[in-house]
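Exam revision sheet. Question 4 asks you to relate a sequence to its structure. Input first:
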Amino acid sequence: MYCRRLNLPNSRDAVYTGGGPASLTENELGELASTSEARRSLMKNSSAISLFACSVSAIALLCIPAVAQNPLPPPGKAPLYNTAKQELLEGKQVFSFTQSKADSAGYCEAAKHYDFTWFEMQHSTLEFADVEKMIAACPHVRATPMIRLPDAQEWHIQHATDIGAIGIIVPTVDDVDRAREAAKWARYPPTGRRSAGAGQARGIWGINGIDYRQTINDNMLVVVMIETPTGVANAYDIASVPGIDVVIIGNNDLSSFSGYAQTDERYHQLVQKVHDDVLRAGKIFGLANAMYATGPYSKDSQFFQNGKSVDGWQPPASANPNAPPAGEESK
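Answer key, structure tokens:
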């Protein structure tokens, strides 16, 4: 198979596609990029107004380096208490189990054996009070508590962080606006706009002399999911947003939104573009489907929903540790 370079219209991004009948055509790629260009034009027209209205302090908040945001702690500094983030920064793969119902006993048992917990609040009836109780039941269990939220709204992210989550996962990120919202509300000033509020987070993580307020920004892990062709077209811009730590493919939704089966070469071209753009932006790449922890994407993929436990532990026979939540099965 040979490769050819296609430039998206009026875009700085290039896509390399394989030859042959299964390759995306220029018209198809143009359709993927059209929404991206429209949004970019709208953002360009509104930028002057936004900058004029901003105060000097607000502008300063935006002037955060987009590269090298995730350095390892310097020598002599304690490792992160977000152990999943620490492992990612060390180049390791991390895996979760998915908690989609209120079950403190079941959660506390499973959380002994995984890198992080994927609390499912996009496709479940879990409430914040349910997650709060589960985190409180075993606050320093091995698995880092992370919540997949339904969106990037301020109140959702504030609730998640106040109850003790030290990682958020935001789905269906199509553009930089949604990515900026995710990053902005997850961290305190000066790097974000998180408000100081009550909740159990400080009592869980601010122990043994640790100052929660001064350390949580470094420990917070912000993950966004690209799940549509529009998100693929905007992948580099999304990944370049300051404060975004990890970008993952929502494999099943990308298949659904693109119309390509996960075995289709055109689907893999979309995944490859996101992979290349995320690494070019200096961020961590992952995939929601743990089946990709081995195979062609495994070399650079670090973050997965579900997958293997750290100690070989197996969930009850009725559960499949690699299975996506109900309704998100592979096409």
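Marking note for examiners. Residues 26-53 form the longest helix (28 residues).
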